[in-house]
Specification:
By secondary structure, the chain is mainly alpha-helical. It has a single domain, classed as Up-down Bundle (Growth Hormone, Chain: A), CATH 1.20.1250. It contains 17 helices and 2 strands. The chain has a two-stranded antiparallel sheet. The protein is globular, with a radius of gyration of 20 Å. The two termini are about 25 Å apart.
């Protein structure tokens, strides 16, 4: 299950900003669109995709990933085929809506939902391992996309991504996924159920802080201040991070950094995130989620500040490292915190609401930078706003305590 979750995170790439970013310049030139048009299509996609995610989360809690993940893999590949055939702004908007709502939203949610069901005591470390799938995806997919675009054109590149998703995700998901350990006579974390002690499952669940009595509904969760503080971090990460990655090639070109080097920098970010994610997972299992999330906001604000005033091109390595540190924390602590705080029974529905807001925020991220560039010839105005937002969110999340009802 851990392997399938990791694979799902890797193959969600066609809907992720780091993958789409590589297509921007080739598609703009071929379709005759402005950067603002492209970003606006991305915004529309996020609004629609965000509206769908609460329903996906609800379905996950009822149907499970065994049904949904292979279905989503089929749909994501189909969306990539659509992207290979577009010829207008309307077609681009429809294509973005499909790849973002399925790839960035539903596939990611399903993959982490599965791991959340199979792990309790080691959930933070498990989420760190799953985050490796996303990190390796950031390391490899942008360069793969760039190679395919240069060799075969951007339309064929989208078709190759479709084949990769169909072959790499659908069949393994159909054959291997089991939604929960208990029907197989297992306990989470790979532990065997002891048939000689009938109450072992209930007692161990309670020890892990995941007893049914501690599980909150969506309505109960939405009434808690902690939910909104956590959501602020997730939304700021999505908005600012997506905007920076979406325009990374152009943003770094302002500082004299070539396109290939800008794409390679994504690999550095992913490498740093890989190491950080494992450490953050261990700290998450110790109950340090809110402090980790606050530190992640500090890293993000520092990265944006460096983009505002980069002394020399070499400082791009520091910029990439800061974003990598932030990304590693978010992929682990930022994923595990929802089920740790609000329980297992409705994790799909609760995370579906949170991810819906995050997808909308991500959709909004590229537009301020695009408008700032098209109207003023500079990214400065948007970057100043992007530097302030993480500071505010970080100050709030430090006070986000776990609800008493979810404590053992």
């Amino acid at each position: 299950m851990l392997g399938i979750g990791t694979l799902g995170m890797y193959l969600s790439a066609p809907g992720q900003s780091f993958s789409v970013a590589v297509f921007i310049d080739p598609m703009l030139g071929d379709l005759g669109l402005r950067r603002t048009d492209y970003s606006f299509a991305y915004l529309i996609a996020g609004l629609v995709g965000g509206a769908l995610l609460p329903g996906i989360g609800w379905l996950l809690d009822r149907l499970g990933a065994r049904v949904l993940l292979p279905t989503l893999g089929l749909l994501l590949g189909t969306a990539c085929v659509w992207m290979s055939s577009i010829g207008s702004l309307l077609g681009l908007s429809i294509g973005f809506t499909m790849i973002r709502s399925i790839g960035q939203g539903a596939v990611t949610l399903s993959s982490t939902w599965l791991v959340g069901e199979w792990f309790q005591r080691r959930r933070g470390v498990a989420m760190g391992v799953v985050g490796l799938g996303g990190a390796v995806s950031v390391m490899t997919i942008p360069m793969l996309n760039n190679f395919l675009i240069e060799e075969f054109g951007w339309r064929s590149a989208w078709s190759y991504l479709a084949v990769m998703v169909w072959g790499g995700l659908v069949i393994p998901a159909l054959l291997l996924i089991r939604d929960r350990p208990e029907p197989l006579g297992l306990l989470p974390d790979g532990r065997w159920q002891d048939d000689d002690v009938p109450d072992v499952q209930a007692s161990e669940l309670q020890d892990a802080g995941d007893s049914g009595a501690g599980d909150l509904t969506v309505g109960e969760t939405l009434r808690l201040a902690s939910f909104w503080k956590l959501l602020a971090v997730l939304c700021v990460t999505s908005m600012v991070g997506t905007g920076l990655i979406f325009h990374q090639v152009s943003l770094l070109a302002v500082h004299g950094i070539a396109r290939t080097d800008a794409l390679l920098l994504l690999g550095l970010q992913a490498g740093v995130a890989t190491v950080t994610g494992v450490l953050a997972g261990w700290l998450t299992d110790m109950g340090c989620e809110r402090y980790l999330l606050a530190v992640s906001m500090l890293f993000l604000a520092s990265g944006v500040g460096l983009m505002l005033g980069m002394p020399s091109p070499g400082w791009a390595l520091v910029y990439g490292s800061l974003l990598g540190l932030q990304g590693g924390i978010i992929r682990t602590a930022g994923t595990a915190v929802w089920i740790n705080y609000y329980g297992r029974a409705n994790q799909g529905a609760i995370r579906g609401v949170a991810m819906a807001a995050a997808v909308v925020a991500a959709a909004c991220g590229p537009l301020p930078l695009a408008v700032s560039w098209d109207w003023t010839g500079s990214y400065k105005t948007a970057l100043i706003i992007f530097a302030i937002l993480p500071i505010v969110a970080g100050a709030g999340v430090v006070t986000a305590r776990r609800p008493a009802s979810s404590l053992p």
